[in-house]
Amino acid sequence: MSCAVSILKRELKGYFATPVAYVFIVIFLFLTGLFTFQLGGLYGEGNGQADLGAFFVWHPWLYLFLIPAVAMRLWAEERKSGTVELLLTLPVSLPQAILGKFIAAWLFIGIALALTFPTVLTVMYLGDPDMGIIIASYCGSFLMAGAFLAIGICMSALSSNQVVGFIIAVVVCFLLILAGHEPVLAAFRGWAPGWLVDAIASVSFLTHFSLVQRGLIRVTDLVFFVTLIIGWLTACGVILEMKKAE
Amino acid sequence: MAMIETNKLRKVFGPIEAVKGVSFRVEKGEVLGFLGPNGAGKSTVMRMLTCFLTPTAGTASVGGHDIRSDSMKVRRCVGYVPESNPVYGDMTTVAFLNFIAEMRGFRGRELKRRVDEVIDRCWLTDVRSQVTETLSKGFKRRVGLAQAFLHDPPILVLDEPTEGLDPNQKHEVRTLINRMAPDKATIISTHILEEVDAVCTRAIIIAEGRIVADGTPTELKERSRYHGAVRLTVETPDARGAEQALSGLPGVENVETLGKTDGVTRFFVSPKHGQSVLSGIVKLANEKKWRIEEMSEESGHLDEVFREITTKGGKHS
Question: Which chain B residue has its CA at the smallest distance from A81's CA?
């Protein structure tokens, strides 16, 4: 496990060694602010509540683009520069290497997420929000970020071109979000059997995040996100193993 | 016991059989030159030995551990420089080596000692804190070697370690390898034939996934048709007569007149395979009272042997 920690440290430092990390954090904070206060109408009329619903509801859509951007370099860069051969001939197992990179990127997103704290301070200043709900929502959002990230890291292993990895990851994530979007489900509801509509809805981020953003983490949602993470990371290992020969 | 022993290693990539059953041994203290044209399967064999790729069939024992079942133990006793020498470009030399040392399981004072020692040994002191991306090729290569030497492994696998370097840098790298080699088993792949003379104790020539020759550099050169050929510069008024006399010597296959100036003639005398003509020529020169200006015996051309066996009898150019 100590190898995974060494990789984690290297990757995390890697983010901050270039301006990428700062650019990402600034964009993330700017967009969360914009969406929450302008589009989300945190101050808007009729929103007399001091809660962060207007803040969390945008997270799946922000993650859709930002997380593939964080993940795209993780394996593509290693493959492009050939360092993947160096890394994977060191005494470290493939799962440990993947886990090290995954957790590094997840922590990085965690840092960006934590830096949204002024929004929390705002609602605390304005009213008396339920801190339990806010903390639970943050945890849920972080968990969902992990699922997005697992998809991104898997797609990053697919090609030595970062842009290719980014685009495929965005498409896959978009499909997974869209599956729970009401207009999409309505289109199916007309003709498809009920169980199919439920099945489509149940693989969606939106369905599982809808309660999370109100501060409620159900076991099924927890299982859903954790399963996604494990599944996509496993797929990542399979892809890396296959792509070694190239 | 051999440090490296491969047993009918095979690797198939889709429709292509890159390595077709390769078996060889490397003992401690040996530096094995792995020769072959590009695409012959050299790198693939090395990638299997270092556990990057899994063989399709066959296996190998590296440092006494099986590459299939004991991959982690193999990795611990091997220092590997992959082809084109990849290093993390965004790290400084010392940060990169620290990372490798951590991955190799060193911590604290031991880690620092190892890294300092290898920086000193690979002449990297001046570029300690420089980002590896900005290093010259020669320095970068030494960083790559330092990474492989760091844990003082009993086995070194170096894939084209001097590729793309200038003559001075090549010399530095060879000096480093020669210094490390005596108590290790080393495999070096290359297609630069002078390298074999410079560092290798034994050479294997591999072509189209098969071993086509295996021997010491001298043995390989003996297979050259120029092995034992004599270059001769003599002062004689009768060049034609001299050429005929040389052709008449026992064991001579062919005599070529390379040039003639002011009564000085240069000959190239090729022997029949496996025969020596030098002493015959000396005797003849004494009898005829030729004044010999220069005479040398060829040990054979490795590049010619290489071409001969890697292109099916040297028929292709």
Answer: B86
Taking the CA of residue B269 and the nearest CA in chain A, the distance in Å comes to 49
Structure tokens at B114: 């190892």
Structure-token pair, residue B36:
């072959």
- ipTM of this predicted structure: 0.87
> By a Cβ cutoff of 8 Å, what residues of chain A touch chain B?
2-3, 6-7, 10, 14, 17-18, 81-83, 85-86, 88-93, 244-245
Is B26 strand, coil or helix?
Answer: strand
Tokens of B31: 């530096």
pTM: 0.86
Q: What is the band of A45 on the pLDDT scale with cuts at 50, 70, 90?
A: low
Q: Is B47 exposed, middle or buried (0-12, 13-18, 19+ CB in 10 A)?
A: buried
**Concatenated DSSP letters of chain B:** --SEEEEEEEEEETTEEEEEEEEEEE-TT-EEEEE--TTSSHHHHHHHHTTSS--SEEEEEETTEETTT-HHHHHHTEEEE-TT----TTSBHHHHHHHHHHHTT--HHHHHHHHHHHHHHTT-GGGTTSBGGGS-HHHHHHHHHHHHHTT--SEEEEESTTTT--HHHHHHHHHHHHHHGGGSEEEEEES-HHHHHHH-SEEEEEETTEEEEEE-HHHHHHTSTTTT-EEEEEE-S-HHHHHHHHHTSTTEEEEEEEEEETTEEEEEEEESTT---HHHHHHHHHHHT-EEEEEEE----HHHHHHHHHTTTTT--
Domains of chain B: 4-222 (3.40.50.300), 230-298 (3.30.70.1340)
The sign of the CA dihedral B56, B58, B62, B65 is: positive
Instruction: Report how far Cα A91 is from the mean position of its chain's Cα atoms.
Output: 30
Q: Considering only A123-127, B104-108, B116-120, which range has the smallest mean pLDDT?
A: A123-127
Residue B93 has pLDDT above 90, yes or no: yes
Q: Which residues of B touch A6 (CB under 8 A)?
A: 99, 102-103
CB within 8 Å: B88 and A93: no
Q: What is the pLDDT of residues B46-78, one digit of tens each?
A: 999 999 999 999 999 999 999 999 999 999 999
Is-contact B302 B197, C-beta < 8 A?
Answer: yes
Residue B58, classed as helix, strand or coil, is: strand
| A49 has a pLDDT exceeding 70 | no
Q: Which residue has the higher pLDDT, A167 or A37?
A: A167
Chain B residues within 8 Å of chain A (Cβ atoms)? 13, 47, 50-53, 72, 75-76, 78, 80, 82-84, 86-91, 99-100, 102-105, 147
Inter-chain CB proximity A91 and B82 less than 8 Å: no
Q: Which of A17, A86, A93 sits opposite B86 (nearest CB)?
A: A86
- Rounded (5°) CA angle A199-A204-A210: 115
